[in-house]
């Protein structure tokens, strides 16, 4: 559980793996993510908004179980306030790639980012993958510093952004 001050009583968010019943709230969070940080994710807001609910539901169902891909959410009991995913990579069997990390602005600085990544890390370890890797757009200093605070280290590897060729991403790693 992560807490964020909300008046005299803290509001808490449960960190857990997505469930099929989360599909509508995941769609809403995905649209928020893309509106807030359009370069951080691999699709446009317009494409995501045009996708039918059935596609969101199928993806949530697919990532709610198994060891290949997983999504974790921060759920305070209403609107979702955070997300982090993890997936395998065929080239490094001991590695989980962390993707689509997002914390809604009002929850930033609450520790939620670390809790979400820790959930991905626990899942990764349980699947026999002892290392995490993520990519961050070069120049996104806020995200870079936040990931450093939770143990990620810049590897020095730079790659072209997958959808905006003018941008470069840097790779960061940490133990799971």
Automatic annotation (TrEMBL):
Keyword annotations: Acyltransferase, Transferase
SUPFAM superfamilies cross-referenced by the UniProt entry: Acyl-CoA N-acyltransferases (Nat) (SSF55729)
Residues of the signal peptide: none
Domain of life: Bacteria
Gene3D superfamilies membership: 3.40.630.30
Pfam family, one: Acetyltransf_1
MF GO annotations: acyltransferase activity, transferring groups other than amino-acyl groups
Record carries keyword Transferase: yes
PROSITE patterns tied to this protein: GNAT (PS51186)
Domain N-acetyltransferase: 13-176
Name this protein carries in UniProt: GNAT family N-acetyltransferase
């Amino acid at each position: 559980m992560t807490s964020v001050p909300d008046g005299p009583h803290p509001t808490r968010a449960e960190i857990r793996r997505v469930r099929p019943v989360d599909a509508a709230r995941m769609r809403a969070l995905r649209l928020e993510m893309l509106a807030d940080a359009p370069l951080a994710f691999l699709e446009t807001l317009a494409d995501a908004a045009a996708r039918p609910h059935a596609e969101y539901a199928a993806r949530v169902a697919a990532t709610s179980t198994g060891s290949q891909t997983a999504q974790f959410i921060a759920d305070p009991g209403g609107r979702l306030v955070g997300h982090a995913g993890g997936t395998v990579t065929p080239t490094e069997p001991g590695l989980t790639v962390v993707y689509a990390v997002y914390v809604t602005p009002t929850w930033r600085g609450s520790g939620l980012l670390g809790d979400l990544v820790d959930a991905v890390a626990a899942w990764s370890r349980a699947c026999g993958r002892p290392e995490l890797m993520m990519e961050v757009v070069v120049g996104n200093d806020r995200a870079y510093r936040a990931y450093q605070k939770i143990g990620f280290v810049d590897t020095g590897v730079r790659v072209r952004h997958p959808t905006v060729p003018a941008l470069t991403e840097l790779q960061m790693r940490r133990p799971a």
